[in-house]
Amino acid sequence: MFAKIAGTGSALPERVVDNFEIARNVDTSDEWIQSRTGVRTRHIAGEETAVSLAIDASKEAIKDAGISPEEIDLVIVSTVSAEQLLPCLACEVQAAVGADNAAAFDVNAACTGFITAYQIAVGQMKAGLAKTALIIGTECLSNIVDWTDRGTCILFGDGAGAAVLKADTTCETEILPMVLHADGRKGGVLTCGSGTGNGKSAYGRYVQMDGKEIYRFAVKEVPMVIKELLSLSGWEAGDVDYFVLHQANRRIIEAIAKRLHLDESRFPMNMMDNGNMSSASIPVLLDSMNKKGMLKPGTRLIIAGFGAGLTWGGTCLTW
Ligand code: COA
């Protein structure tokens, strides 16, 4: 049994906000933001919502996969920034795309969310419970960012990416290695309260972050997870065409590449144009690579995410 991505899609809000616009509201500069994070612009939702972006990305992925929506038997949405708690976004996507035969639910594993959704879908396939899955990472982080906090508001953006995953039950090759990790003891370094309830949450309404701790965590754990995946798969680093990482910021990715003694050109990046879109970063990047023709049958990828929780993990994938 082998699981393959059969189609991808993405959706970004129309409005583009550059660093100069941010610098009109908080004490920062284009030079500081670009040199510390790599981010030049990000898309910020106006009329769009986490649901509408998820639906647009999903329709594109379904079209790209050339399937009919009725074939989908599982819809999983990863998000931390939806406008609503209920109904779950996956049910809204299911209804909007006409995936009438699908089960649907959301997951929250922050920036590791898309990888988590992918691994749940592959697990369902391996158990014989699903053959075709639609997995989506969608975020309107502008809903949960404090626009007066220069330490966080410079980083994030809104968007959604989707992928259709198909099981090939005729293929004898085993599913490729996947790993997930968590360390809840360090959860306090990246938090956000729900804004609902009566003040019982220990966390504020907006994203709060110890940037230096997150940086240290990512630069330590992501190379280790990549080495873990290489060891489990038997692949050499040289066998991997691209390392598709969560787009938290350029300095983190550069440091990870350096630690692994790998050329940065094998680490595609899109945070320059989109900022950090949490669980949407990886599927939006996969979709742009797909559209550029970078992903051909047999292309080998290692995909890895990391973020709040703390959570991190990755998967080997052959296109
Ligand atoms: N513009 C200008 N100056 C800023 C600033 C901004 N947007 N944000 C912070 N500063 C200032 C600080 O106040 C501090 O000033 P001081 O030296 O006078 O006290 C100085 O810049 C250095 O701040 P520091 O927080 O040490 O910066 P840094 O080099 O650690 O960079 C991050 C901050 C957020 C870019 C960096 O920590 C980072 O990339 N962390 C990872 C965050 C991340 O990826 N989160 C998402 C994970 S999924």
Write up this protein.
This protein is of the alpha/beta class. The chain contains nine helices and 13 strands. It has helices at residues 19-23, 30-37, 50-65, 89-97, 113-126, 211-233, 250-259, 271-274, 281-291; strands at 2-11, 16-18, 41-43, 74-78, 103-107, 132-140, 158-168, 178-182, 190-191, 208-209, 242-245, 300-307, 311-318. It has a five-stranded mixed β-sheet with strand order 1-7-6-4-5, with helices on both faces. Helix 3 packs across helix 4 and helix 6 packs across helix 7 (250-259). The longest helix is centred in the C-terminal third of the chain and has 23 residues, at 211-233. It is globular and about 60 Å long. The two termini are 15 Å apart. The model has no long low-confidence stretch (mean pLDDT 95). Residues 28, 32, 36-37, 111, 150-151, 154-155, 209, 211-212, 214-215, 248-249, 251-252, 276, 307 line the site of coenzyme A.
